[in-house]
Amino acid sequence: QVQLVESGGGLVQPGGSLRLSCAASGSISTNNAMAWYRQAPGKERELVARISGSTTNYADSVKGRFTISRDNTKNAIYLQMNTLKPEDTAVYYCNAERYITVTPYRRDYWGRGTQVTVSS
Asked: Could you list the pLDDT tens digit for every one of the 120 residues in the chain?
């Protein structure tokens, strides 16, 4: 079974930094496209950062502050978050894209999430 496990969340002051990790196991590889999403209370889950091959994408709200990376030898992805703001407070989820042979031809796998709270 596919399993994604996030870690590294916590409480940090505005302007601080955190590094999130996502360890993948099962029939999934970080060679595939993976991403970080976040969801704040009352808000829809939003894409924060995505990595696919050599291509990375970021939400406008985190550009220049967050960096997504991967270590395929460890089957893990990371999210370095710098200059954190209170509005970054959310549960952060690791996502793995897997393409299948039946409709909808794609399945997304999710971790259980890790809480990031930015507050003084």
From this structure: 889 999 999 999 999 999 999 999 987 777 789 999 999 999 999 999 999 988 999 999 999 999 999 998 898 999 999 999 999 999 999 999 888 889 999 889 999 999 999 999
Could you give the CA distance from residue 76 to residue 86 in angstroms, rounded to a whole number?
Answer: 27
What tokens does 107 get? 């399945």
The 3-state DSSP class for residue 87 equals helix
Q: Is the dihedral of CA 99, 104, 37, 95 positive or negative?
A: negative
User: Which amino acid is present at 69?
Assistant: S
Maximum separation of any 2 CA atoms in the chain, in Å: 48
**Tokens representing 23?**
């360890």
